[in-house]
Amino acid sequence: MNLIKCNSPITNRVIYSRFANIGVVVLISVLSACGGGGATSGGTGSTPPLSQIQGEWNGTTSNNRLITGIVLSDGTYYMFYTQQVGINFGAGVLQGNSTSSAGTFSSANGIDFSLESLSVTPITTSGIYTPNMSFSGSVSYPTNPTISFSSTYSSDYLGTPSLSTVAGTYSTGGGGFVQNAMDSLTLISVSPTGAMSFGTSTGNCNVTGTLSPRTDGNVYNASINFADNAQLACTWGNQTFTGIGYFNTTTPQQRLFNTATQQFLLWVQNSNRTNGYLFVGTKP
Fold first, then answer.
1. 234: how many CB neighbours lie within 10 A of its CB?
2. What is the 8-class DSSP label of residue 253?
3. pLDDT of residue 50 exceeding 70
4. How far apart, in whole angstroms, are the C-alpha atoms of residue 186 and residue 89?
5. Which of 17-26, 48-57, 244-253 has the lowest mean pLDDT?
6. Which of 100, 113, 144, 271 might form a disulfide with 52, Cβ 3.0–4.6 angstroms?
7. CA torsion sign, 267 to 269 to 274 to 278?
8. What are the boundaries of each domain within the chain?
9. Helices (H) and strands (E) in the chain, counts
């Protein structure tokens, strides 16, 4: 497939979700609808309003994929999706910026990062939501058929992210690069300080990464840096991919890949959104 409580410290957290076709995919979106706009800070500045659909959403699509979506407080969303056949494999991520108000969600600059077709495709997404309950809508492509989805809210997003919780060694559950399926990069471990260690990369790169807890939900900011090694030029150049990490310790993560509750989802992309890397793993 070229496939969000009010007035409390954690109320305005919401998520959004979506999945599609290949290896392993999960989509995360946030949904929270609270009346009112952004709070005004003292002095001359003002704080932008939080996304009303902030949170985590788990569901299915009209073409038989599982999805998990995360919508952050600023409206940025990441939607992970699975294959149509063999839902234990991830297929891609939908990512973009969104606006939400009075039960309506919209995004005009989305990208479908497909691991199945090794492609990036522009998308537009629209939908309706009931705060902390349900979120449904459609994803439109330039040429492919429109895909509809429905999802329900998960309170997992209201947890507090902690590096000591996410630290550990992970076994690979799937993933890869959008631009080149032959290049491999495997997350081996996360340290208590947030440093990420990786296994063999076939892209001739020295790879380092970091995780840091966000303050608006049970999500981590993620960053991976690619650099030339001593002998060869790195396939991905000297650049940094950024995105999010999500660690589920409570309910099975939408059973997207397996029933493990110690499941970690990682998605990072380059600055111009032409390539990305997805990892799905579990801790013993």
1. 17
2. S
3. no
4. 16
5. 17-26
6. 100
7. negative
8. 163-282
9. 1, 18
DSSP letter at 157 equals: G
Two structure tokens written together for 135: 């979120």
- Contacts (Cβ under 8 Å, ≥6 apart) of 42: none
What distance in Å separates the CA atoms of residue 175 and residue 280, rounded to the nearest whole number? Answer: 6
One-character DSSP codes across 68-95: EEEE-TTS-EEEEEE-SSSTTSEEEEEE
Task: Kindly state the helix (H) or strand (E) to which residue 151 belongs, with its residue range.
Answer: strand 147-154
What's the chain's average pLDDT? 78
DSSP state of 170: -
Identity of residue 178: V
Q: Where are the alpha helices (DSSP H) in the chain?
A: 163-166
Q: What is the pTM for the complete model shown?
A: 0.80
User: For residues 169 and 189, what is the distance between their CA atoms, to the nearest angstrom?
Assistant: 4
Mean pLDDT of the 164-180 span: 81
Q: How buried is residue 29: exposed, middle or buried, by Cβ count under 10 Å (0-12/13-18/19+)?
A: buried
* One-letter identity of residue 215: T
DSSP classification of residue 164: H
**Tokens 């946030």 sit at which residue?**
30
C-alpha angle 257-262-268 in degrees, rounded to nearest 5: 65
Candidates 155, 143, 138; CA nearest to 117 is: 143
* Tokens linked to 122: 């522009």
Q: What is the DSSP letter of 9?
A: T
Say how far residue 33 (Cα) sits from the centre of its chain: 20
Position 21 scores a pLDDT of: 36
Are β-strands 263-269 and 276-282 bridged in parallel, bridged antiparallel, or unpaired?
antiparallel
User: Hey, what's the torsion of the CAs at 78, 276, 25, 111, to 10 degrees?
Assistant: 50
**Cα 210-9-27 angle, rounded to 5 deg:** 50
